[in-house]
Amino acid sequence: FAYAVGKLELERKQILDRLVSENPSIQLQSNGSYNTPNRQILLPTVFKSIALITAPNSDGQRDFNKVIDHNKYGYAFAVTPFLTTIQGDTASLLILQQLQLIKASNLHFDVVVIVRGGGSDIDFKSFNDYELAKAIALFPTPILTGIGHDRNTSIADLMARQLKTPTEVATFILENNMSFEREIEIL
What we know:
The protein has helices at 2-22, 37-40, 59-69, 91-104, 130-138, 155-159, 166-186; strands at 27-28, 34-35, 49-54, 78-83, 111-115, 143-146, 161-162. By secondary structure, the chain is of the alpha/beta class. The strands form two sheets. Strands 4-3-5-6-7 form a five-stranded parallel beta sheet, with helices on both faces. A two-stranded antiparallel ribbon has the order 1-2.
């Protein structure tokens, strides 16, 4: 097991090095974070329209929707699900296809959210794929990730805006909107 985790960590470092060397717009910062075009997109003042990439009937989908749908502020959101397999050998390709569908849909989304529940480091392999990470880093709509627990950080997380869990992503969206509402009330 330790060998497999060590091998995964080496592959992860090679992918990160490749992302930086082959894509000048992806830069490693002195603090260890990554500056990507996606992370530079300003978040909307208010979130209304959300593209949700997740596995069908998953804990991640349920947790995110529960917080969004039953929020105490009464905010309504248009959440469009883009359902796919989130783990396994073909998951990175399937998630990438969902991003391509979102881009090709010509629908306006304020944000793309990618969520899943936690799991072992090996379960997160699909989120350490070069092509998926590059697509996330260069995606024209802000991406929020909630694909793990506190101990998990994938390459996909590093290319987007990471919030550890689906619940944290939903809470961030609600708090963002509530902050705007407070500003309006003060005015």
